[in-house]
């Protein structure tokens, strides 16, 4: 087993991976750019290496610097997390060439599935339906326009090299195509180092259902059931659940088998996700493969009891999978809410800044994966994910109630987040009855604004006055201090001028 | 002593007077409310406005105080300036919201957050329509268009592709049609 692993990432996923490393007795090395000098993920590591310049291209996307850092600190393997270089076959190859182990699929398998266009080609002849789209990417606007005509509008511009909503745009009319392609390519270039785009047909109100797969060195492939990630905005997931309200055991078996088949054809090893679109008619279409651990992996962990990072490391160490497909049926229901530094009241504008106060929710069945702490800066250079709140309960209804309670208890002040919107989504009738699809948010919360609430505003004004401790309020003895305060043992007190205190 | 505070879209006149142990008289725009302060320490307060105990969290910032209650956060701003606000959530809202509070005249296009200029879509002297995109900026790997808040003419363009810009920096200045302040 490895003795030391470098985690080539930041934020909540770096913290999460480092935690498992510690539990496995493996020393963890973190990397950080100058913007992350005081970042919380450093505390979770045994050692930290500086990558310098905060620009991703010069730090977290700099393969040479990362491999060098791993070598210098004596690491035997590198875990790439998600985003950044996690789906770069070039990076996986560079790690291997340096004599280190890449915790993920081999570069050949990654290249086969990581590029969306070649993945679709892989399935030809398999009987697994694919979402209609271009088989070859094209930089040429004339070819894109011709392909769009053939597919029929609306079409979607997608990045060949990565996902997460980056580079994706829906185009409803021919006049919008050229500009959408230019902006999509530019976003893709910034996020993945590759601006190649292609087109896909837009299906009407599908669900996004993806299957977690694990492949070992002996060629065994298993699936760990599905995650339903239909609640998205701008093609970025904001809420995921497992199992999917739309699947029964029969459909799960059929889709699971298709996912395993895709992984087998690609010679896939380690953890990956096979994404499908599921129509209201229960027909499913292969969308793409994500050759990495995904943001929403916690809900699979909660419903199977497995630690996926541990599985990844064991597979990378050559240990064959000891699990059996028949033992892996999902247990209970899990929901995850993504908390980004974004303002849903202003078109989800990123909201970088300083976290003035954060208090994470607690309690049974609540898991909060975060990369933030009170006082830390949310830099503008990177993806704005702050934390993921995942809950697990015996039924979907109980999971919804638990998710609402967890979000209500999640204090974040200083940056805007979508928590208020997520609470409304969870309370909404269409969500409660499980009628989710990829246009759910657009249809029910399209021009969402926080509700004007007089009672809340009164509380806010009061909070401001109490926080500011106006002179006129000095006479108000608090009675007892709020829970968990060092003052709770002092009884009634009053701060007199000069900073001394006396019993009131 | 009364204070002008903005929370949500409205500015209120607010004052508070102690009214006995643990009690406060809170006046908002002239209407008074009895408040019991069950406990109060830095960042957390337990209060009762008559409907039972409520826990709120607070944090100071330059503009005033952020207050959180049950998953919802509101910013209470001190001494807000009067200004006409565009519809919240509208395409003009973000850059206009950034311009407000900075004392910039209407038509000053400034980024709502620190960003990098990706594209400059207009030139000096060009006529623009309301909502027409002027500059594209990128932050946190997402591109946003900054649009004109009203129909007018581009008076000046200071934005350069590749430049790192901050809220308050005027990237483009648009003059309203007819030269009078609109919106």
Describe, in short, the structure shown.
Chain A is an alpha+beta fold and 504 residues long.
The radius of gyration over CA of chain B amounts to 21 Å
Largest sheet of chain A: 8 strands, antiparallel
Main interface: chain pair and counts = A-B, 71 and 71 residues
Strand content of chain B: over 45%
Characterize the largest beta sheet of chain B: strand count, sense, and whether it forms a barrel. Answer: 8 strands, antiparallel, barrel
Average per-residue pLDDT of chain A, rounded, comes to 89
Helix content percent band of chain A: 25-40%
Cα shape of chain A: globular
Estimated structural class of chain A: alpha+beta
Please report the total strand number of chain A as a whole number: 24
Instruction: Report mean pLDDT of chain B, rounded to a whole number.
Output: 82
**Could you spell the SSE succession of chain B in H and E letters?**
EEEEEEEEHEEEEEEEE
Output the number of helix runs of chain A.
15
Distance between the termini of chain A: 62 Å
Q: What's the total count of β strands of chain B?
A: 16
Oligomer: heterodimer
Low-confidence stretches of chain A: 479-504
The end-to-end span of chain B amounts to 34 Å
* Biggest sheet strand line-up of chain B: 1-2-3-4-5-6-7-8
Classify the helix fraction of chain B into a percent range: under 10%
What brief labels describe this structure?
heterodimer, A: 504 residues, alpha+beta, 8-stranded antiparallel beta sheet, 5-stranded parallel beta sheet, globular, disordered C terminus, B: 183 residues, mainly beta, 4-stranded antiparallel beta sheet, 16 strands
